């Protein structure tokens, strides 16, 4: 079945959706995005993603393509048309396509934002647990990682460095402390305590992170938001990542050091279970 995608008001077969070569995201990386997961045909934490999208747009002085109710309706329609039970909806807003290349932002009166959405069908997404091997790499990204921009070249290079090293993903390190994963937030567990870096411009404010930390407290686990090193994580009982596309995924190896017995940790798996249960209940 050909996937139906959304582009600036139209629902089109993916092969027919075309964007200008002058689009600011293509030339300048001038765009923001969100990835919302779908479970049981419903959207997980849509409000969180819509709120973060609005924040990204505000921070970059980028006009919103439409209001958030309309965005919800587009998400739902695409999920329905494409028959998605489990998977993701990818959304991207760019500063649009002016007539020519120019560093200066175009006039928002004449250049309207580009809005693109497409679905990714991932049957079995919730059931699949693949414990991860992680390597550490330097964090050389720009200083506004709290804005979810499409400038993903370094995260993409990080995934390739991990792959070449026989690992699954990379955690990035700045001034000796872990910031986050290439496309996820990073955590370790020691005893009853979950440790993860505090929110700042250094990391993306994960929507899954917010939910998991809330559920952790309900599950009687302590949460400590602070800087931590790779060495500290290597000495932990368990580690894990969170994101909209992996939920909670256990980490079993960091820079060649095996955590615990090398199996997915019971607390991380429990957090994943709670997250999935609660998210399904609240899905819209
Ligand atoms: N990535 N940190 C980074 C750098 C990310 O790219 C992501 C998400 C997260 C987790 O955020 P959330 O829980 O809101 O998904 C943290 C998405 C999934 C992606 O790029 O595909």
SS element count, helices: 7
Which range best describes the helical content: under 10%, 10-25%, 25-40%, 40-55%, 55-70% or over 70%? 25-40%
Class of secondary structure makeup:
alpha+beta
CA-CA gap between termini: 25 Å
Overall geometry comes to globular
CATH topology of the largest domain: D-amino Acid Aminotransferase, Chain A, domain 2
In short:
The chain has 284 residues and is α+β, with helices and mostly antiparallel strands.
Features:
284 residues, alpha+beta, D-amino Acid Aminotransferase, Chain A, domain 1, D-amino Acid Aminotransferase, Chain A, domain 2, 6-stranded antiparallel sheet, 7 helices, binds N-(5'-phosphopyridoxyl)-D-alanine
Architecture blueprint of SSEs:
Layout: E1 4-7, E2 10-13, H1 24-28, E3 31-39, E4 42-43, H2 46-59, H3 68-81, E5 87-94, E6 114-121, E7 132-138, H4 153-164, E8 169-174, E9 177-181, E10 185-190, E11 193-196, H5 207-218, E12 222-225, H6 230-234, E13 238-243, E14 247-254, E15 257-258, H7 266-282
Parallel strand pairs: 7-8, 7-14, 11-12
Antiparallel strand pairs: 1-2, 1-6, 3-4, 3-5, 5-6, 8-9, 10-11, 10-13, 13-14, 14-15
The site of N-(5'-phosphopyridoxyl)-D-alanine has 14 residues, from α5 and β13.
């Amino acid at each position: 079945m050909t996937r139906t995608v959304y582009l600036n008001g139209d629902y089109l077969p993916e092969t027919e959706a075309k964007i200008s070569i002058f689009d600011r995201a293509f030339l300048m990386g001038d765009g923001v995005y969100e990835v919302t997961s779908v479970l049981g045909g419903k959207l997980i934490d849509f409000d969180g993603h819509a709120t973060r999208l609005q924040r990204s747009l505000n921070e970059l002085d980028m006009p919103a393509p439409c209001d958030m109710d309309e965005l919800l309706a587009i998400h739902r329609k695409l999920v329905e048309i494409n028959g998605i039970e489990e998977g993701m909806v990818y959304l991207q807003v760019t500063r649009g396509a002016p007539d020519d290349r120019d560093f200066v932002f175009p006039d928002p009166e004449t250049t309207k934002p580009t809005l693109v959405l497409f679905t990714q069908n991932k049957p079995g997404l919730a059931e699949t647990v693949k414990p991860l091997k992680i390597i550490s790499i330097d964090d050389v990204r720009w200083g506004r990682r709290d804005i979810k921009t499409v400038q993903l070249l370094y995260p993409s290079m990080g995934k390739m460095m991990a792959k070449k090293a026989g690992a699954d993903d990379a955690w990035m390190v700045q001034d000796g402390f872990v910031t986050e994963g290439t496309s996820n937030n990073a955590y370790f567990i020691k005893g009853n305590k979950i440790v993860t870096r505090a929110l700042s411009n250094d990391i993306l404010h994960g929507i899954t992170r917010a939910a998991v930390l809330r559920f952790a407290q309900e599950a009687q686990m302590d949460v400590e938001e602070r800087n931590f090193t790779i060495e500290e994580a290597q000495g932990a009982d368990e580690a894990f990542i969170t994101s909209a596309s992996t939920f909670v995924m256990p980490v079993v190896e960091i820079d060649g050091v095996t955590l615990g017995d090398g199996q997915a940790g019971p607390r991380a798996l429990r957090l994943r279970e709670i997250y999935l249960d609660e998210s399904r209940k609240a899905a819209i």
